[in-house]
Amino acid sequence: MGAEPALSVPWPDKSIVRTRSVGYIVQLFRNTLSYELRFSLMTKRTAPRASMRDVAREAHVSLGSVSRVLSGETDKFAAATVKRVQDTARQLNYRPNAAARSIFTGRSKMAGVMIPATAYYCPMLNTLNAMLFAQGHVMIHTWNPAAITAADDPTEQQIVHQMIERAVDGVILRPSCEEFEHSYYQEIWQRGVPLIVIDREMSLFKTDFVGTDDIALGEAAARYLLELGHRHLLFVGANSACSTSALRGQGFRNVISQTPDASCRAVSSQEIPQVLSQDDSPTGVFCYSDGKAKKCLAEAEKIGLQAPRDFSIIGCGNLPSNTTLTTFDQQQDEIGRRVAELYLKRIAESTRTSPETIRLPARLIPRGTTAART
User: Fold this and answer.
1) Which of 36, 194, 199, 271 sits at 20 to 30 Å (Cα–Cα) from 15?
2) Beta strands 208-212 and 110-114: pairing type?
3) Is residue 246 part of a domain?
């Protein structure tokens, strides 16, 4: 084999070097290096990729046998044949071409997952990923950087487009807005791609949903505070754009309204300092999230109030950082498991069935921020 041709790169004229800036000379050298690298890559020979036909030839079996064995249909062949095919594929470093396979199967085995990687959602994501991976599926995971958006925000639609371009079999998302119209996900409907929504249910159209029974959660919070003897109660989460907050507040107020000597006020998180500073400040507080409860505790500390000495407070989410807060465990692991089961069911269906709504109960975890009213 002859030597590779020499690469000649012209050196810049001295007059150019004298009249140009240092930045220009640096850029010139960068361009030269880039050119040399491209030339090297173009002239370097790479080993050919092993094909399924190569595996069949070396293992002395048919092409169809290789396809079936490597697809998991091992029960149809003798153990020796299976081992020979698998060993040969490994020796040749054979990897199936997923893109080519999807043309024949109609499935890419890729799931588009748009769920924020926050402390609350991570247990859900871990379970979802483990269950999908066990069935031979991989997640393409990304999400809208904004947790809450307006109905005309295009970001989520753009992410969906990117998912569809990558031929995902289905989409699982936590929506940044519950008021997106049906047409917002038109690209999904046109291609018959299953859509499963978690945590926040869409308000203008029906699709598969898995989340918490938020009304029951709010009712349980009210009953617990009432059992502790609190009658002047506060719900923190009014004016929120999230249905999770509205539904928890609804359940909370439903129970309190049926208790003759109890009262409830609903406020936004911005009103917490003002409410806690009043002479008749509430003795029982329910916040729709652990984050709001943490903020409430910080504001109370500024004016000399402590929980549970001066008031009791409950959050939602059971975040790892809030080890002393009375809260609700929303079974994120179980939500992830139910989402995975529903996803695998949907992509296996030949015809679309009616949307399912799955709401799981939350579990109260009493800790150090609640006590009986004295």
Assistant:
1) 36
2) unpaired
3) yes
What is the distance between the alpha carbons of residues 110 and 133, in angstroms, rounded to a whole number?
A: 10
Distance between alpha carbon 329 and the CA centroid of its chain, in Å? 18
pLDDT at position 13: 43
Q: Is residue 373 part of a domain?
A: no
Predicted TM-score (pTM) of the model is 0.76
Tokens of 195: 């859509």
User: Do 67 and 88 sit in the same domain of this protein?
Assistant: yes
Same domain, 325 and 221: yes
| Enclosing domain of residue 159 | 108-209+335-352
Helix 52-59 × helix 79-91 angle, to 10°: 130
- Sequence length of the chain is 374
* Count of domains observed in the chain: 4
Question: Cα separation of 97 and 173, whole Å?
Answer: 28
Q: pLDDT for 58-106, tens place per residue? A: 999 998 898 888 877 888 899 999 999 999 989 988 877 665 565 555 6
Express each pLDDT in 191-220 by its tens digit. 889 999 999 999 999 999 999 999 999 999
